[in-house]
Amino acid sequence: MEPLRILSASEQVAAHLRRALLGGEWGGRIPGGNQLADRLGTGRNTVEAALQLLEDEGLLVPQGPGRRRLVRLPKKPARQALRVAILLSEDADRQLGYLVKLRQQLGEAGQIAFFAEHSMVGLGMDVKRIARVVGKTEADAWVVLAGSHDLLEWFVKQKLKAFALFGRRRGFAMAGVGPDKPGAMATATRALIGLGHRRIVLMARTRRRKPEPGASERAFLDELTAHGIIPGAYHLPDWQASIGGFHERLKTLFQVTPPTALIVDEVSFFIAARNFLAERGLRVPEDVSMVCTDADPAFDWCRTSIAHIRWDTGPVVRSVVRWADRVARGMEDLRQRHTPAEFVAGGRSGLWGVRAPMAAKRRKGMMTRTRMGAAVFLEGGGRW
User: Fold this and answer.
1) Coil vs helix vs strand at 70
2) Domain 9-71's class?
3) What DSSP letter does each residue of 190-207 carry, written as one string?
4) Which class in CATH covers the domain with range 83-179+313-339?
5) What pTM does this model have?
């Protein structure tokens, strides 16, 4: 144990003034000795001795008799830019507006942001392969876009500076942000059930379903249960994470017991599913009702607007930028935030009606097509 050292009165005053100077209490010049003595309630000689100590340290610069001393604060060392690697879910994510904005704002904050060479889907969602890419990438911190449970768990175990942008982050000691979708998902499901739908299918990525359904998926299943619909593999189907696997699952669904409503996770899957229906002559919303779990600017151009879950990307981007700033300053930040999300029902009037399941025949030449027993959305007050 070091011996106790009792500070003299002038040293105690110098310590007090030092804290005030470094805290920015005085800018260009410090008050004179008499003024400081009156303020501190101590003797003039004690204050002058303290000021001399601060001069010796270089915090004060004398200007001659009767003139106040200049304050010279030490220059802050230049902070090294943080190299932030963004691990994408798939290569197409590079074009997402909020990721473009994120890179821009990180750059403006003095960081170096770049996309990792390979995406998670490009690496087959294989944690070992992704780990090798991470190990070879020169980065100080990582932003993981929609990471799976296993991948985020790996980042935590490696004690890497990582931020979960969406993904299965709940329960992990890591920073993250994402829209609070479970409530909006429950509202969307409840709205569909209220309009008469029973055969509702949620198409979500594997990482949203395994090892167990995520929060939004659980909200969907719980809402079905609350309304007497026994949820199963039909409502949250498994499918291979590929273009072929996605379309094969849709084909299987519509062969025997076709859904009357589809909730589709992510805009790209929504467009693919709508295209699948169009190729088979099924109209949205007349034959099959659809909800997208995200918004897209293209939706505003649709004559009948698309039901979707809306959330603001601004707070999400700002959360990542603030986290990177703290990491660059050597601070630990493991906070997880949730931004508001809301269900937008769609339609020009914002109201929808429903026609009970029925079989409608349409003749075209000698061919008769039987329309599947799908609940049909009509705009509020529309025809029946």
Assistant:
1) strand
2) mainly alpha
3) HHHHHTT---EEEE--HH
4) alpha beta
5) 0.68
